[in-house]
Automatic annotation (TrEMBL):
Keyword Transmembrane helix tagged: yes
Principal subcellular localisation of the protein: membrane
Alphabetical keyword list: ATP-binding, Cell membrane, Membrane, Nucleotide-binding, Transmembrane, Transmembrane helix, Transport
Transmembrane segments: 21-44, 56-73, 135-154, 160-178, 243-264, 276-294
Domain ABC transporter: 333-567
Name the UniProt record assigns to this protein: ATP-binding cassette, subfamily B
Membrane topology classification: Multi-pass membrane protein
PANTHER family: ATP-BINDING CASSETTE SUB-FAMILY B (PTHR24221), ATP-BINDING CASSETTE SUB-FAMILY B MEMBER 6 (PTHR24221:SF654)
Residues annotated as domain ABC transmembrane type-1: 21-302
Subcellular location: Cell membrane
Alphabetical list of Gene3D superfamilies matching this protein: ABC transporter type 1, transmembrane domain, P-loop containing nucleotide triphosphate hydrolases
Gene Ontology MF, one: ABC-type transporter activity
Length: 584
């Protein structure tokens, strides 16, 4: 019931249409009875000759009208329900998309794109299917037996009671099934979720699975979850199958219950032949539409999980915005006593203090997991800090309108996502109002123009899923082109040359140095040799700032930095000596 009311909440903007669809469905059920009523009068007419042709013509006309009216009611019910269903689908998608657009970026690192995709596509479509098809169907399925029963009671209450019996037995049988299956419901959902998760993981990780020569059978998580789901389904069908058969049989067995008492009443002349025939015609399958109730309840169970997932997304608190907030006057970045921890973990930063002057290049270095990326991402309100504050130009970033904050920061990540669109549009993503010339100019600055013009359709070449694949270095140059086009005063580069070979690295560095002129830049990197020219280097270690100074100064003042530097130098020397020796 909760699911049903949540469903109607989603369809709130279209409730009038849904109500009308339900009314037309009831009208459809009512009109279904009209031909039987006409038949009743035809039988009476036939039993009392001579036949009046005028009356017969009139009955035929009425039957035709009822059929036409029924067709109209069905069409209207379907049409209105579809409009309401698709309207609701659009509303939910828009609402989720709008909501996730306001969530902190951290949310996306905890929720895979696969699960978000499933919610936005499958879960929402299931809701639409229930609203479009099952609700009008359900109204008709309930209205038809109720109206028929009313008519039967009106004709003869004794026989109507007999006709009610199979319905009561069917309902009891249904209740017994629910009781037996309800304990298995959680197991069903759990195994379905586990299987869906394993399928998504299998598809997403297919390259690695194949690289390690695994197959569907040998990839344990996949095969065991599929087997487990199969066992649950078999168990479920064994129980539900017998009840389902009984339920269906009961719904269709009205004749069996009505025939003996009907014949008895007829023999005692306590029932007219016309009433008896009408009873026999109506009672056979009057309750059969209730069969659809079963299908509806199973559909409702399917949408229940989806609604839970949608609600979980909508329950996430968006980042509080400050639309009327202040704008920074310059672009220095300050961490003031910042404490931050990820949801479940112990604090990553405690009272972190750092000042990055405007227009300088600062490198974040340190061992893996030291907090370099987290510190850089916090500047864009990846997630709000728990204590202290981060300021840009002296303004707490929480007091800067989010759109303005993000406009002022450009990221160049290790992995760049390319959309299913042309190269031109992929770069233009950074500034949608940029002209083609601006985009090409940015690509030239990023040293990407030459490889783009060699692509099959140059700037019009389609990228993204299933289209042309670019190398890691080429993708990174597109990322830099985006950043150049964006021309934001703060730039964060995360291992931006990670994929580049020596030749490409030189090109990338050239692109990057043009991008950086006059900007406040943070470079997250591991290769210290490439970072010696930075104005300052911040050395992180388990969330603590061990040193913050230029390279030469750090070599003498920060033991961690000196060790890292020596280790990397030795590794480079070792590999060079090693290569020279092996060539000798
Ligand atoms: N989304 C997240 N949720 C929970 N913990 C996280 C998340 N992202 C990072 N962490 C944890 O925070 C710590 C710092 O991670 P971070 O990625 O900032 O380090 P890093 O220095 O950039 O590492 P690397 O050089 O390996 O990229 C790690 O212990 C990591 O496990």
């Amino acid at each position: 019931m909760n699911t049903l009311s949540r469903l109607f909440n989603f369809a709130h903007n279209h409730k009038n249409m849904l109500r009308q669809a339900a009314l037309f469905s009831v009208a459809d059920a009512l009109l279904e009875l009209v031909p039987y009523g006409i038949l009743y009068f035809v039988i009476i007419e036939c039993m009392n000759p001579p036949l009046s042709l005028a009356k017969m013509a009139w009955f035929s006309f009425l039957a035709l009208c009822s059929i036409c009216a029924r067709a109209f009611a069905r069409w209207k019910a379907g049409n209105l329900a579809h409009k309401a269903g698709y309207g609701t689908l659009m509303d939910i998608r828009r609402k989720i998309a709008q909501h996730i657009g306001q969530l902190p970026m951290l949310f996306f690192s905890h929720n895979s794109s696969g699960s978000l995709l499933k919610t936005l596509s499958e879960d929402v479509e299931r809701i639409e299917a229930v609203l479009c098809h099952h609700i009008p169907d359900l109204c008709a399925a309930i209205a038809a037996p109720l109206l028929t029963l009313t008519l039967l009671f009106f004709l003869d209450w004794r026989l109507a009671l007999a006709a009610l019996l199979p319905l009561i037995l069917a309902i009891l049988c249904q209740l017994a099934m629910f009781r037996e299956c309800s304990t298995r419901m959680q197991g069903f959902h759990d195994s379905l979720t586990a299987m869906n998760g394993a399928i998504v993981e299998y598809v997403q990780g297919i390259m690695d699975i194949k690289a390690f020569n695994q197959t569907v059978e040998s990839y344990q998580r996949f095969s065991s979850s599929v087997r487990n789901f199969e066992t649950v389904i078999k168990d479920w069908s064994k129980i539900s199958g017998k009840y389902y058969a009984l339920f269906g049989t009961m719904l269709g067995s009205g004749l069996l219950f009505v025939l003996p008492p009907g014949l008895m009443l007829l023999s005692k002349e306590s029932l007219s032949m016309a009433d008896f025939i009408l009873f026999l015609l109506l009672v056979g399958g009057y309750a059969a539409p209730l069969d659809r109730l079963l299908r509806f309840s199973s559909k409702l169970r399917e949408v229940e999980e989806g609604i839970r997932r949608i609600d979980a997304i909508l329950a996430q608190a968006p980042l509080p915005d400050a639309p009327e907030g202040s704008l920074p006057q310059n672009y220095d970045i300050t961490f003031e006593n910042v404490s931050f921890s990820y949801e479940e973990g112990s604090p990553l930063f405690e009272k972190l203090n750092l000042h990055i002057p405007a227009g300088t290049l600062t490198a974040f270095v340190g061992p893996s997991g030291a907090g370099k990326t987290s510190a850089a991402m916090l500047i864009s309100r990846y997630q709000d800090v728990q204590k202290g504050r981060i300021c840009i130009g002296g303004v707490d970033i929480r007091h800067i309108p989010i759109a303005e904050l993000l406009r002022n920061i450009s990221f160049v990540f290790q992995d760049t996502f390319l959309f299913s669109d042309s190269v031109l549009e992929n770069i233009r993503l950074a500034r949608p109002d940029a002209s083609d010339e601006d985009v090409i100019h940015a690509a030239r600055q990023a040293r990407a123009h030459d490889f783009i013009t060699q692509l099959p359709q140059g700037y019009e070449t389609q990228l993204g899923d299933g289209a042309l694949a670019l190398s890691g270095g080429e993708r990174q140059r597109l990322a830099i082109a985006r950043a150049v086009l964006r021309n934001a005063p703060i730039i964060i580069l995360d291992e931006a040359t990670a994929y580049a070979d020596p030749e490409n690295e030189a090109l990338l560095q050239e692109g990057i140095s043009r991008l950086l002129e006059g900007k406040t830049v943070i470079v997250i990197g591991h290769r210290l040799r490439a970072l010696t020219e930075a104005d300052s280097i911040a050395v992180f270690d388990q969330g603590t700032l061990r040193g913050f100074a230029p390279h030469d100064e750090l070599l003498s003042s920060c033991s961690l930095y000196a060790t890292m530097w020596n280790v990397q130098q030795n590794a480079a020397d070792w590999s060079l000596t090693d290569m020279e020796e092996s060539h000798a």
